[in-house]
Amino acid sequence: MWICMKAIICKSGMELVGNLMVADSIFTRMKGLLGRDSLPEGYGLWLKPCKGIHTFGMKFAIDIVFLDKENRVVEIISEIGPNRMTSIFSSAATVLELPAKTLSGTNLLKGDMLIIK
């Protein structure tokens, strides 16, 4: 179920994503984006808690932002394709999965803070 949450980049005030679905149960985190043909622009999945992800069984590429418990960017991975696996980031608490190319042109950097509301 899509809920009306937004992620905003603090330093610029730019909206990174306007429609976040929260995956905060074991079932919703395991399912993630599996079974979807795409992720529309402006939509994203917020996995919590999460320290690493995989794209096995997915049909499309995504951008990934790992966040610590204060929503500071720990790691950024652009356009990770299907059937891949990320490293585990011990300082990460949550992960945003976004449509591929969402991060291009945002100037989002490690250490930047996001507001999620």
What are the salient characteristics of this protein?
Jelly Rolls; three-stranded antiparallel sheet; five-stranded mixed sheet; mainly beta
Folded structure, characterized:
It is built from one helix and eight strands, in the order βββαβββββ. The protein has 117 residues and is mostly beta strands. The protein has one domain: Protein of unknown function DUF192 (Jelly Rolls, Sandwich). Strands 3-4-7-5-6 form a five-stranded mixed beta sheet. It has a three-stranded antiparallel beta sheet with strand order 2-1-8, with no helix packed on it. Strand 1 and strand 2 form a beta hairpin. The longest helix has 6 residues. The chain starts with 6 loop residues before the first strand and ends with a strand. The model has no long low-confidence stretch (mean pLDDT 94).
